[in-house]
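This part of the workshop introduces the protein records we will be handling. A record pairs a protein's sequence with a compact description of its fold. As an example, a complete record with its sequence and its structure tokens follows.

_____
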Amino acid sequence: MALQFLINILVGVIWMFFSANYNSEYFAVGFFWGMVLLFIFRNTFAKNFLGKQLYYVYLYKWLKLIVMFLIELLKADINVLKMMLKKDLDVNPVIFEYPLTVKKNWQITLLANMITLTPGTLTVNVGHDNKQLFIHCLDTNDIEGEIEGIKNSFEKAILEVDLDG
């Protein structure tokens, strides 16, 4: 992945030198053409040499995960704020077991932290065999809906980010 980025920078620098204009605009054009070259040669000999996935696709998936988390964070903030501003505090707190699809320790840690950082939910514990999380939810009547929501948002995005899988 780092090699792809270095090749892309090298193409940008070479483009600058061949253009005889040493400014950022010409470097950006060369950098763009480097991205195009990496895209063109991704399925040829370069697959074993440069890796399975293009680095800018990988960066895009991380950016997508971060933006998705920020949107979920904002939605949860609004829901908790609505609960706080109600005259009567009518909540249904529950702790439930969440079966994990992610397997690697960094994925489990990231998922647990994303759940904990989202207001209204808290990761209480990780199962001893790393196959489930125990999650406290401040207010829910639909545990299956909560599980599906986490699977279709956080866990799905984390699985997309993984280079191996």
